[in-house]
Amino acid sequence: xxxxxxxxxxxxxxxxxxxxxxxxxxxxxxxxxxxxxxxxxxxxxxxxxxxxxxxxxxxxxxxxxxxxxxxxxxxxxxxxxxxxxxxxxxxxxxxxxxxxxxxxxxxxxxxxxxxxxxxxxxxxxxxxxxxxxxxxxxxxxxxxxxxxxxxxxxxxxxxxx
Length: 161
What we know:
The chain is mainly alpha-helical. 85% of the residues lie in helices and 2% in strands. Residues 66-97 form a coiled coil.
């Protein structure tokens, strides 16, 4: 097999007119028209390349901003978790302190109650001892009084006799 022929538009005809039958002015006009079209195509290509570059730059900036925003969100979430953990640890610590203080309070209250009960018992015992002593003293004083009355009565009898 031989080489394949190039397919596509041949430059032998322009707008259905054979280029060999065109005049020099027509060819120059056609050439000028093609150059203008080529320049317009080049400008469009440059414009679209600039637009593509702008879009790519915008895309990269936006993607970078999105990555930064996601990182900021992750940091905030981590910070929130750390604060939550810290708060829970503080609450646990305060609960332990309260528990310890309640235990100390109960211990102090029990000790104070015991001390007061002992003091009350001692006071009651002292009071009972004093009361017994006073009753005993009262009994002795009555005996003394009776003896004195009897002595007075006896003296009065002796005087009468």
